[in-house]
């Protein structure tokens, strides 16, 4: 119940959905005696899209989330990695979504976020040959689980099947944290997820008594990519980055409200 309530309460606050709902309601009011309110709502919808599709605003919203944890550096062998990383014997990849398109390879079925997360996990798995790779995610009945898609994609990228553990029944990050607590206890592990999602994932895992080592992937803000007048520009990518930031901040508020972080 809480899972679907969380989803329902989040959607109206996301920029595109807010703009669509507000503009439709405002447009309907323009045909009634509440024309002044209708114009105000249509204006609010247009302003929300203008604000959140700006590159500078997207950077201000998403940047603090993505820079909370440093990326794991490139290294030729595990000897070049930080000691907290080399102490881990488990690499956990949080689910990131996929399409149910059987004619595509497992790698090509993954969403861009899931593919980036998995690529980082495979890189780390090659540097830590003794580590197990844990993949997670449900997909409802009558379809392969997201964990299965990730596992088969990992195998196609060279990870041995005996190194992969699947968590097929987890629906969201909170489920994943609880299941990891049951399986891993206090053992340190690498937590691979999108950089913008990592603060919430770390908070949930630490609240569950786990010892995660952050391994950010799927960066949407690249240092130096947009500077100066470039921050005044608008595009759909900025709207997506703003949406991710708002979604994550709402998620953090939700878990703190419930005492899970």
Can you describe this structure in just a few lines?
Helices cover 51% and strands 10% of the residues. It has 261 residues and is an alpha/beta fold.
Would you write up a description of this structure?
The chain has 261 residues and is an alpha/beta fold. The chain folds into two domains: 2-65 and 234-257, no CATH class; 75-217, HUPs (Rossmann fold), CATH 3.40.50.620. It contains eleven helices and five strands; from the N terminus they run H-H-H-H-H-E-H-H-E-H-E-H-E-H-E-H. The chain has helices spanning 2-10, 15-29, 35-52, 55-66, 83-86, 106-109, 112-127, 146-156, 173-184, 198-207, 236-257; strands at 90-93, 132-136, 164-167, 188-194, 211-217. It has a five-stranded parallel sheet with strand order 3-2-1-4-5. The radius of gyration is 20 Å and the shape is globular. The two termini are 20 Å apart. The mean pLDDT is 91.
What's the layout of helices and strands?
Elements: H1 2-10, H2 15-29, H3 35-52, H4 55-66, H5 83-86, E1 90-93, H6 106-109, H7 112-127, E2 132-136, H8 146-156, E3 164-167, H9 173-184, E4 188-194, H10 198-207, E5 211-217, H11 236-257
Parallel strand pairs: 1-2, 1-4, 2-3, 4-5
Helix pairs in contact: 2-3, 4-11, 9-10, 10-11
Strand content: 5-15%
CATH class of the largest domain, anyone? Answer: Alpha Beta
- Main beta sheet, described? 5 strands, parallel
Order of helices and strands: HHHHHEHHEHEHEHEH
